Amino acid sequence: MLRFISLTVEDFGPFKGSQTIDFTSDDGVTFIWGNNGRGKTTLLNIFRYAIYGKFQNRRGTNVNLTMLSNRESRSEGRYGFKVVLRMSYDGEIYELTRQFKLRTGVSRPTKNDDYEQTVYLKKGTAILSSEDTDHILKIIMPEQVARFFLFDGELLQEYEELLMEDSDTGAQIKKSIEEILGVPVLTNGATDTAAVLGAYTNAKTRTAQSNKQTEQLGSQIATLEAALQGHNAELERLREELTQELGRKSELESEQNQNEHVKALLAEMKALENSIAEKKARREGLLSDIKNTTKDAWKGLIGFRVNEILSDVEAEVKVLEDKENSQKVAQHFLKEMKEAASRKHCNLCDQDIDDALILKMEERIKVLEGNYGGLTPEESGKLRTLQIRKATLETMRYPSSKERLEIYERQLAAVTVEISDDERKLKAVKEELEKHGDIEELSTSMQNCVKNLINCLKKIDNLKEGERQEAEQIANIRSSLATLNAKLDKTATGEDMVRARRRVELCEMIHNIFEEGIDAYRNNLKSRVEKDATDLFVRISNDPDYVRLEINDNYGLAIYHKDGGDPVPLRSAGFEHVVALALIGALHKNAPLRGPVIMDSPFGRLDPTHKENIIKVLPSLSEQVVLLAYTHEIDEQRARETLGSSLKKEYRLTRQTSFYTRIEPNQEVK
Amino acid sequence: MADLINFRLSKKANEVAELLATSGYFDFAVTAAKFALAYAIKYHFDEINPATYTPSDSDGSNYGIGSLDSDGQIAILLKAIYPDCTTPYLYARNLMVFGLLKIGERIENEGLKSISAFL
After folding, report:
1. Which of A20, A23, A33, B108 has the most crowded CB, counting CB atoms within 10 A?
2. What ipTM was assigned to the predicted interfaces of this complex?
3. What global pTM score does this model have?
4. Residue B1 maps to a domain
5. Which domain holds residue B57?
């Protein structure tokens, strides 16, 4: 079994400097926590790079390696990167070093050719030759099966294709599944025995041709065999070409999807720009309203003080006006008294007044003239001034602008937040667009992509038709050959012919054993995979009524309800995920090849129950499981409790800067 | 005593007026200064005697009375509020400087998040 001992990365992606992850030699699970953008997927791809020398993005496209060196290291003058993967396999310790470095003589790279890639593998202390390195790496983890060891949770939905007939992706996954399950051991045997059978058949034909009795039949058979060989070669060529075209189709579809994505991003960018412009205009309008309001806001602001002063002024005016009024009333009364005193007769009561009373009245008149003498000239002047002041103040009682300004300001704050949100989204969209290169050239590239895809699809159709025709021809020729061979067997009686025929018959029987063995092995494997996948599925699933999985010829798994009937239709994305994980677990259990499982974000759209159930089954997926997850993707503490002693190590990817992540042992692990 | 025809704010007061204008709340610094005059009358009436208050300096921008009080309303108001006032524009300058400094203090403490909060 293959086991990773440690991984050292140097100036690779966000991992600046030299950083090492030590894995445990005990069976169990290692967690590597990291938030978005900290390098979890990069770390997964670093394992792939170490073993295969390739770095692929999620669309399966190879990434330009010059882009992978750490940005900060580059600015500090360190170019390139290095990975050292230490591992054990069959009792031996291996150290694989892969480095992307500057060529000798280059100090500041300007082009891809300024770099070179070196790889060497140490077995114990001895460095292996490049041939041995390739050989060992192919044995310990063949590239065709990498998807089952280093898997990206985001891509688990691909396994749904296994349920579809004639799906190209499904066919490729099926091929990988048969690789990991060891089917090629038998298919290679069948191919080899077929080659030997072909050689013995040719020998038999040559023997027939050399005999007068069977010469004519032999020649006919030879002609047909030559034709069969030609058609077989053509069929093989068509198949190879078809495989290539299917790969090309997949790349073009990926590019097309990418273009669709870019188109959507461009539309989103335009919509956001329009939205921002409209909101900015609204904001300008509100600012203009605010400015118009604040022009006269000072008037409303002094309203309170004006009212207060006005109230004092009014009080003062009242005192003086009261005094002025009481003098007017008193003047009238005094005039009446004076007239009565001078006439010695009161007009009010129409009675004469005696002299004694007249004296009293004159004294009283003197006193009253002192008390109601009216305003002094100063007081009159003051009253006039106060009255003018009062009138002025009364004109200054303006309403406050506070309420109106508050409304404008609330609207302004809301639109400012909206603008800021839109600008943040726009920035993200632009950053995403920048990753796709020159936007101007995009439409030409999109058109070319569509044209190429159409041509590719036509070619695939033609190749499939060619394949069908060749298969038909081959079947016809084989039928004719069978007839001729039967006739030859009846006719030929010579010892040479009998011996040649026996050889062919024996070889046919051996070949048939392989052919039947392949079917038997496949069927046996399928039933084991079906059983183990069902076992895992039932342990992970949150629906107790989903009781079993049924495997099809492509290794696709259908879910069955306890009530039987047809398989569950329209499975949710979450259940697709669970089925895919169950399949991968079952494949590991039945594969002759054993190795570590490294999973990046496998929880996707799963609910908490599914997540917890997956954590429970992690140790049964493989002896060594490494899980890359973002914080809160699962409940960390709960996961630790669930795994108990099966959790061996934890690391955390910690942000130092936008371009620098540190791999640190998690302090929270007990 | 003759009243002012032109006046200069203090340097600090001028900075506050400029800040209020550039924040987008006022069309011009002089509008903000007029606002500050009213602010001083509303909230700091008893703290300042505009007849005797002397700004620390006169290093701010120069304004003409016409741009401050084209319709004469400020002079009328100040004479109504301060009955002994014979130099309304001197009073106006002093109240504007004082008010701007007070607004400046509030901005330093609370930031300038809204203008309605000053009303």
Report:
1. A33
2. 0.94
3. 0.53
4. no
5. 6-118
Distance (Å) from the alpha carbon of A311 to chain B's nearest alpha carbon:
12
User: In sequence order, which ranges of A435-494 are alpha helices (DSSP H)?
Assistant: 442-491
Give the long-range contacts of residues A406-409, CB within 8 A, separation 24 or more. A406/B114, A406/B116, A408/A286, A408/A289, A408/A290, A408/A293, A409/A290, A409/B114, A409/B115, A409/B116
Tell me the count of A-B CB pairs closer than 8 A. Answer: 76
Hey, what domains does chain A have and what are their CATH numbers?
297-400 (1.10.287)
Local mean pLDDT, 10-residue blocks, chain A (670 residues): 92 93 89 87 89 72 74 88 93 93 84 85 91 88 76 69 62 75 83 89 86 84 90 92 85 75 83 93 94 93 92 92 83 84 85 88 82 80 92 91 94 93 87 66 74 88 93 92 85 82 90 90 88 91 87 83 80 79 84 84 79 88 88 83 90 90 75
Q: Which residues pair with A634 in a beta bridge?
A: A631
Query: Is residue A29 helix, strand or coil?
Result: strand
Quote the strand ranges of A590-646, DSSP E: 597-600, 624-629
- Cβ of B80 within 8 Å of Cβ of A393? The answer is yes
CB contact under 8 A, A294 and B31: yes
Contacts of B68 in chain A (CB under 8 A): none
**What crossing angle do the helices spanning B29-43 and B73-81 adopt, rounded to 10°?**
20
Q: Residue B82 domain-assigned?
A: yes
CA distance B119 to B117: 6
- Of B31, B41, B83, nearest to A302 by CB-CB distance is B41
Q: Identify the three-state secondary structure at position B6.
A: strand
Which of the residues B67, B78, B81 would you substitute to probe the A interface, choosing the one with the greatest number of A C-beta atoms within 10 Å? B81
Count of domains observed in chain B: 1
Query: Does B49 reach chain A within 8 Å, measured CB to CB?
Result: no
B53 domain-assigned: yes
